[in-house]
Amino acid sequence: MPRLEGKVALISGAARGQGAAEARLLVAEGARVVLGDVLDDDGAAVAAELGDDQAVYEHLDVTSETDWEAAVQAAASRFGALHILVSNAGISPRPKPITRTSPDEYRRVIEVNQVAAFLGIRAAAPVIADAGGGSIVLTSSVNGMVGAGGIAGYTSSKFALRGLAKTAALELGRYQIRVNSIHPGPIDTVMVQPESWGGFDMRPALAASMPLGRIGRPEEVAELVCYLASDASAYCTGSEFVIDGGFLAGPFNALGADA
């Protein structure tokens, strides 16, 4: 039997990258999915690919409380319930030192990456509770575990998601809602692709710095999300799940990796 048969999921940032991969896998595993994003054409195309019976696209600006409420209502009205929330949307501007980052630039990242996850939980948790419980997955990062120069807003927001997941797990556990954070390392999405870096391809250098010798694929992150959304992880809540190709294992020296 598919792992998510009969479940209904809402995924933010689902028009491309990790979110789209998650939507495709969750549908393949039996779920019906609401895809939320601000990239309306891309999101609608993914939903159409998945089929009207299994997926619907909803415009979702994750900084908007009203949009979150509409997306949750779309799940309930179209598919009858909501069991799974995947808070995946996020941004990461090009690196810039703190002293050259404006307060507005910093606040923008915090709003999209951190406050939006709070809004998503706030809107979705009562509806998930009404369905008898389920799972909430917050997409953090390895930079929610260790710092990195030049991305103060991103790192701050991703650390915050760990705490938010733990607090929500404590508050929602008695409603049979599990809440966990995932912490991907470098993944082959728009954030690291040349279109976001003026044509520069940083992926080979990132791959060379990884113990596994490559960066991750969105489909690999989707597998972790599917596990946390399913009953296979029924006793997992308030925890961090790292998927980073060994990034956090320690400083990597290619010369010391030879057998």
Chain-wise SSE layout:
Blueprint: E1 8-12, H1 17-28, E2 32-37, H2 40-50, E3 55-59, H3 65-79, E4 84-87, H4 103-130, E5 134-139, H5 152-172, E6 177-184, H6 203-208, H7 218-229, E7 240-243
Parallel strand pairs: 1-2, 1-4, 2-3, 4-5, 5-6, 6-7
Helix pairs in contact: 1-7, 3-4, 4-5
What does this protein look like?
- The mean pLDDT is 95.
- The protein is globular.
- It is 41% helix and 15% strand.
- It has one domain: Rossmann fold (3-Layer(aba) Sandwich).
- Strands 3-2-1-4-5-6-7 form a seven-stranded parallel beta sheet, sandwiched between helices.
- It has seven helices and seven strands, in the order βαβαβαβαβαβααβ.
- 45% of the residues are buried.
- It has helices at residues 17-28, 40-50, 65-79, 103-130, 152-172, 203-208, 218-229, and strands spanning 8-12, 32-37, 55-59, 84-87, 134-139, 177-184, 240-243.
- α4 links the parallel β4 (84-87) and β5.
- α1 packs across α7 and α3 (65-79) runs parallel beside α4 (103-130).
- With 259 residues, it is of the alpha/beta class.
